[in-house]
Amino acid sequence: MAVDYAVIFLYLAGMLAMGWWGMRRARSKSDFLVAGRRLGPFLYSGTMAAIVLGGASTIGGVGLGYKHGLSGAWMVLTIGFGLLALSLFFSARISRLKVYTVSEMLDLRYGGRAGLITGLVMWAYTLMLAVTSTIAYATIFDVLLDVPRTLAIVLGGGIVVAYSTLGGMWSITLTDMVQFVVKTIGVLLLLLPIAVVKAGGFGALRDELPTSYFEPLGIGGETIFTYVLIYTFGMLIGQDIWQRVFTARDDRTARWGGTVAGTYCLVYAIAGAVIGTAAKVMYPNLASADDAFATIVTHELPVGVRGLVLAAALAAVMSTSSGALIACATVANNDIWSRLRAAARGGEPAPDAGAHDEVRGNRLFILIMGAAVIVIAIALNDVVQALTVAYNLLVGGLLIPILGGLLWKRGTVQGALTSVAVGGLTVSALMWHYGILADQPIYYGLLASLAAYVVVSLLTPPTDPAVLATWRERLAGRGAPESAGAPAEEADAAPGAHAEAHPGTGDGR
């Protein structure tokens, strides 16, 4: 395993080096939180694909393929569909708003009174997403180093917290690009063909496995529908995803760069399901389907290649973890702490902070949230239930107010706040009644949230025309604060700039 260890060590050292390099670029709040809003199509596509394809999509996707065959791809497919929908229909408008958080968008749309409660819901979601991603390090480092669970979480989580704290979104963007390349080589170009060949080829898969393994809907229509509600709609509204949209240098980059990333997700979904199906032929009696990825990597891959594929799994987990961590810290600082401080001052504006102080404050919040994530990850056992609670509250509470604000001008702040409260309470009550992993909470929670939003909005006065006028100006890309974005001519001031700046250079546009 010496060669494999060397590959992993070089990968982790590279992540820390990227964090140090990113620190030199993070000179303002915009640089630190949204990479100066400068990313072109190449960087944007790679980092967006990296953030949405985490440990659940890689290790879990292979596990679903092991259990259900090709239809196990549906979980990751719905993630890809959500990213495609976000990119094609909403990302251009989101990018033009020049905000930092989802709650800021809701304040802008509804008149400044929706931010704190939506911030609390979004903070809980991003915190749990970061926690569950961090716990995944335990599985990977157990395969690599056979170390105790706590040490694995501290080791992996400490590296992510270190490079995220140093350079913020610039560091995360650079590390995500490396992670994207490693995942592409490790999973798509190496593990996929090796697994199929080792299993005897596609003909052997069909001969050895039941026909249900090759039915497109074999996983079940109700399961697919639930995936759509949770993951497709979750892609439309999550702070971790929106914060990547905010990094795009223009709305064209957000639209088409995201479309490339969404298409990549669809390919990744099918690859994971095929790898899992091949693992079922080679190891039909594994105790847990989630062991399929580690088993096939450990026993079937040659030295060196094994290290690279394990680095790919580590990359998948790290990209999601770092994206969730900076999203959690951004919400905690901008949507919760800043509002509580403003309330304590009686609504008086805060004294102006210099760019250095803004970066230092956000860096401190990443460090604090990162430490909290590591502690919770060590203490928490049932990560599936924790993540389900987070996604149910996110989609059940925030989907309708967010999409309603983007699509329906008659929606009001009273309708939005009622929708958040009714949807969140309904989901919580039904999870208690039916069980956390049941489908009913999200079904009925969304219906209750929609009914509350429409009814209360129609029963209350329309949103102030001045607020809507400001909203329309921002949606059109006008009236944004001067400090919100970087000058267009600076858009290529990053690695890969020449590939992004010129058409026809293979950047996916």
UniProtKB/TrEMBL annotation:
<feature type="transmembrane region" description="Helical">
    <location>
        <begin position="184"/>
        <end position="204"/>
    </location>
</feature>
<dbReference type="InterPro" id="IPR001734">
    <property type="entry name" value="Na/solute_symporter"/>
</dbReference>
<feature type="transmembrane region" description="Helical">
    <location>
        <begin position="364"/>
        <end position="383"/>
    </location>
</feature>
<feature type="region of interest" description="Disordered">
    <location>
        <begin position="478"/>
        <end position="509"/>
    </location>
</feature>
<feature type="transmembrane region" description="Helical">
    <location>
        <begin position="303"/>
        <end position="332"/>
    </location>
</feature>
<keyword id="KW-0813">Transport</keyword>
<keyword id="KW-1133">Transmembrane helix</keyword>
<feature type="transmembrane region" description="Helical">
    <location>
        <begin position="224"/>
        <end position="242"/>
    </location>
</feature>
<feature type="transmembrane region" description="Helical">
    <location>
        <begin position="72"/>
        <end position="94"/>
    </location>
</feature>
<protein>
    <submittedName>
        <fullName>Sodium:solute symporter</fullName>
    </submittedName>
</protein>
<feature type="transmembrane region" description="Helical">
    <location>
        <begin position="415"/>
        <end position="436"/>
    </location>
</feature>
<feature type="transmembrane region" description="Helical">
    <location>
        <begin position="152"/>
        <end position="172"/>
    </location>
</feature>
<keyword id="KW-0472">Membrane</keyword>
<feature type="transmembrane region" description="Helical">
    <location>
        <begin position="442"/>
        <end position="460"/>
    </location>
</feature>
<feature type="transmembrane region" description="Helical">
    <location>
        <begin position="43"/>
        <end position="66"/>
    </location>
</feature>
<feature type="transmembrane region" description="Helical">
    <location>
        <begin position="115"/>
        <end position="140"/>
    </location>
</feature>
<dbReference type="InterPro" id="IPR050277">
    <property type="entry name" value="Sodium:Solute_Symporter"/>
</dbReference>
<comment type="similarity">
    <text>Belongs to the sodium:solute symporter (SSF) (TC 2.A.21) family.</text>
</comment>
<feature type="transmembrane region" description="Helical">
    <location>
        <begin position="389"/>
        <end position="408"/>
    </location>
</feature>
<dbReference type="InterPro" id="IPR038377">
    <property type="entry name" value="Na/Glc_symporter_sf"/>
</dbReference>
<dbReference type="Pfam" id="PF00474">
    <property type="entry name" value="SSF"/>
</dbReference>
<keyword id="KW-0812">Transmembrane</keyword>
<feature type="transmembrane region" description="Helical">
    <location>
        <begin position="263"/>
        <end position="283"/>
    </location>
</feature>
<feature type="transmembrane region" description="Helical">
    <location>
        <begin position="6"/>
        <end position="23"/>
    </location>
</feature>
